Amino acid sequence: MTHPVPGYLYILQGELTVEFADGKHLVFKTGQAFMQARTKWHRGINTGSGEMRFLAVFFGEKGTPIILNPPHAQSEPKP
């Protein structure tokens, strides 16, 4: 995914790993906050041993999507 508007996350519980298309990754744990990547394709994964919860706040004009998913090839099934 990417984000067309600025977004901030705060990890309420657990561990979130953000993986980027280039193979890099960042790990965030309970109590940490960060600005979401906007221009790089990425995904978030719960890599902790239990439940993971976060608070996300996005800032944008009403009606603007907060998440853009990558396009799928016609031969690929959509999730």
Automatic annotation (TrEMBL):
Gene3D superfamilies: Jelly Rolls
Annotated source species: Granulicella sibirica
Record-linked Pfam families: Cupin_2
Domain Cupin type-2: 2-58
Source domain of life: Bacteria
Lineage, uppermost ranks: Bacteria, Pseudomonadati, Acidobacteriota, Terriglobia, Terriglobales
Stated name of the protein: Cupin type-2 domain-containing protein
InterPro entries registered for this protein in UniProt: Cupin_2, RmlC-like_jellyroll, RmlC_Cupin_sf
